[in-house]
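In this notebook, the sequence line spells out the residues, with the fold written below as integer tokens. This is how one looks.
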Amino acid sequence: MGWWENWVVPRITEVACGSRELRPWRERTCAGLHGRVLELGFGSGHNTGLYPAAVTSVSAVEPSDVGWELSAQRRARSKIPIERTGLDGQALTSADAAFDSALSTFTLCTIPDAVAALREVRRVLVPGGTIHFLEHGLAPDDGVARWQRRLEPAQRAFSGGCHLTRDIPDLLAAAGFEVLDLAEQYLPGPKAARPWSYGYLGRAVAAGSAPR
């Protein structure tokens, strides 16, 4: 990665994804996490402090050293142990069935092969383990979607590969997950921000498995 992606993008993400308005959405996403949790794209740790008491540990996949450094104070305040495990969500270093739950917030937009990463998450979850997700992606409104397609090349160049047009439920299905519950709507913010703010919040389990 170049200088922009290494040093600037993590700081932009820290601000863009850390707004107070998003906190209730993050709380809803974290609800129900338990046991050993894999967090895909930990970033600067905006979910720390929101993990339920049933969570015993968090293993954080975070490729950016700057992002990890930005999370230092939040990690230090966490009552739940957090360790960094691996740099690439597409090739997790953990063993099969190593985690009870998984968490992904504003991460699937940027991973080059999101389906490969989700298949890895499915591999490392115990049978019936669920992935909790809060992501932005393709809007259902034709006018907004047209703007997303127009803006996506610049968005990817400016924001470390972030896509605007990914259909999150479709990605989960392609990776072998079944969505258990799903809320879709525009995230808080001005109407002009809608190409960046169509949100998907929910849980999914490996298809054919009963959730734990």
Observations:
- The two ends are 39 Å apart (CA to CA).
- The domain at 3-206 is CATH 3.40.50.150 (Rossmann fold).
- Helices lie at 3-16, 23-30, 65-70, 72-77, 114-124, 142-158, 168-174.
- The first strand starts at residue 35 and ends at 40.
